[in-house]
Amino acid sequence: MRLKSVVVCVAVVVSGVVSAGWQPEEPAAAPAASDGHERANDGASNKFSVTHHTTTSGGETFDYTVTTGRMVLPDYEGEPRADVFFIAYIRDRDANADAASDNADAADRPITFAYNGGPGSSSVWLHLGALGPKRVDMGPEGFAPKPPYRLLDNEYGWLGFTDLVFIDPVGTGYSRPAEGESKSQFHGLDEDISSVGDFIRLWTTRNERWRSPKFLAGESYGTTRNAGMARYLQDTHGMFLSGIVMISAVLDFHTVRFNDGNDAPYWLFLPTYAATAWYHGALDDDLQATPLREFLDEVEAFAGNDYLVALGKGAAIDADERAGIVRTLSRYTGLSEDYVDRADLRLNISRFTEELLRDEGVIVGRLDSRIRARDADRNGTGPNFDPSMEAIDGPYAALLNDYLRTELGYETDHPYEILTGRVHPWSYDRFTNRYVNVAPRLRDAMLKNRNLRVLFASGYYDLATPYFATDYTIDHLGIDPDLRSNIRTEYYEAGHMMYIREVELARLHDHVASFYAETLTAPAAPQP
Q1: Rounded-to-integer distance, Cα 48 and Cα 331, Å
Q2: Cα–Cα dist 325/179, whole Å
Q3: Three-class SS of residue 66?
Q4: Which of 188, 199, 255, 467 is 20 to 30 Å apart from 295, CA to CA?
Q5: In a shared domain, residues 270 and 192
Q6: Residue 78 has what DSSP assignment?
Q7: Residue 226 belongs to what H/E stretch?
Q8: Would you say residue 437 lies in a domain?
């Protein structure tokens, strides 16, 4: 095993990653390509495909270079422990610039490391949904398209204001443990943070980007990773970030776990239940005529006051008070008073998605509650599938596999793990017998790096990581008022992947672009 490892290590010397400062040598085994691309088969680690393209983003047309491949991730002694698959998009330098300004541009250009969550998800969703120069055509609303599917130029991609590196954590995409290495060393909260963080350090070093402003962009469990990563990169590698983008965040798991004795999800999910009922026209006429944001202000006030108090009282609640809570919950959710009463005021997510439109024989999505489907099983135990997951699974899988070979020139017969259960069991050892909560890690990172800014992006129709639960987490970070101004929140009339709805994709782009500009031009934070 170790002899093979030595051979793989040699590949690190003869192959490199494209950067703003230099080009990699072409791998000796790379086959010739008729389209002018430098191609690399996946027969060994650290062979990359390098391709050149042009895109238009933010009204500007420019050239960029893509490096696709697997990088050997060594342990502390230099022995390979994993092959990490990545796709790096680097905007080409201005050919008319002089050498001095050219080097300055390379150093000042932001770099963003992006990934999704799961655990067990590849980076395909952010890659081909919002950030990259290509996007899956999901139509204007983001509902399931008809196959065959189309890949579009993404005029809302982020390459106009930042270079991008999409990372597939070990076990997802084409990333795999090295020969003889146990997968368990990667499949856990802290194990995942350290392996992805070590890859970021290695990529940054090889590409001479230590002086570049560095950002993280994560979605769902990727935001859990973000919070831990910010502290890990600072404490372990001395790498201080400029900013973090949290898309559909979950940092404190007690806000989303429907377990006995935990009442938090019931009141934190209520505004999203209400938004969902409003979207599907399940409410009384006066509420349907109320603008969504105004309606949600009313629901939030009830959820955080009367409803929270009622839940806290449990069986000690007065009968008249309970009856009033039942009526209001029914009014805000579109569920019958009888159902709310039988549920003991506690509306579980899986039951809600099935119960809301039961009379129509329709279920609604978890990732995006705007999306509907018919489920063969209507016995009240919860839906058999999530229609919002099924809407995106086929298009993203088909187009990612096609795009890698036909446009990025990366050829392998290995299966690309889009969203896999192979990473389980997932370890949360440090949180045994308590809920996972990485919000304190984000707080610590911000206290140590007072220039760190964070953008939270949340969808009103997201029943996986509800926006009100995210707001609760932010309000309980325990940071001083000066640092609170480093946090920005934005909301979207879509679901977990708000960018599948085109109007919200455009808004997300504009919000993130302005967030980067504000972060990069802000003066240094003063001492407290």
Answers
A1: 57
A2: 58
A3: strand
A4: 255
A5: no
A6: S
A7: helix 221-237
A8: yes
Spatial CA neighbour of 112 closest among 93, 89, 94: 89
d(C-alpha 334, C-alpha 455), whole Å: 32
pLDDT tens readout for residues 305-339? 999 999 999 999 999 999 999 999 999 999 999 99
Q: Model's pTM, two decimal places?
A: 0.90
Cis bond upstream, residue 425 (ω within 30): yes
Q: Are residues 181 and 195 in the same domain?
A: yes
For residues 274 and 185, state if they share a domain.
no
Bridge partners, 489 (sequence order)? 456
Tell me: do 428 and 368 sit in the same domain.
Answer: no
CATH of the domain at 178: 3.40.50.1820
Local structure of residue 499 (DSSP, 8 states):
G
Would you say residue 451 lies in a domain?
Answer: yes
Going by pLDDT thresholds of 50, 70 and 90, the confidence category of residue 59 is: confident
Q: Where are the alpha helices (DSSP H) in 238-291?
A: 264-279, 285-288
Q: For residue 243, which of 525, 471, 528, 526 has the smallest C-alpha distance?
A: 525
Give the integer Cα–Cα distance in Å for 161 and 515.
Answer: 11
**Whole-number Cα distances in Å, 11 to 2, 17, 27, 234, 349:** 15, 12, 9, 29, 49
Q: Is the pLDDT assigned to residue 26 strictly greater than 80?
A: no
175 and 107: one domain? yes
Structural domain contains residue 390 = no
Q: Tell me how far CA of residue 402 lies from CA of 154, 239, 350, in angstroms.
A: 17, 35, 34
Contact 389, 515 (CB under 8 A): no
Residue at 391 is within a domain: no
Cis amide bond preceding 119, omega within 30: yes
The range of the structural domain enclosing residue 449 comes to 2-254+409-521
Tell whether 472 and 332 lie within a shared domain.
Answer: no
The verdict on 279 and 300 lying in the same domain is yes
Tell me: pLDDT of 200 over 80.
Answer: yes
User: Are the CB atoms for 115 and 168 separated by under 8 Å?
Assistant: yes
Of 419, 281, 267, the C-alpha closest to 347 is: 267
The three-state secondary structure class of 282 is coil
**b vs e for 60-75, b when ≥16 Cβ sit within 10 Å of the residue's Cβ?**
eebebbbbbbbbbbbe
Locate all alpha helices (DSSP H) within 417-466, ordered by sequence.
439-448
| Ramachandran angles phi, psi of 52, nearest 5° | -125, 135
Do 343 and 469 share a domain, yes or no?
no
Find the mean pLDDT for residues 341-361: 95
Residue where a domain terminates, one of 350, 370, 385 = 385
Residue 86: phi and psi, rounded to 5, are: -145, 160
Domain count, the chain: 2
Q: Sign of dihedral through CA atoms 75, 77, 80, 83?
A: positive
Q: Per-residue pLDDT tens for 446-492?
A: 999 999 999 999 999 999 999 999 999 999 999 999 899 999 999 99
pLDDT of 98 above 50? yes
Which two structure tokens, joined as six digits, stand for 2? 């170790």
The pLDDT value given to residue 437: 98
Give the mean model confidence (pLDDT) for residues 21-37.
34
pLDDT of residue 93: 86
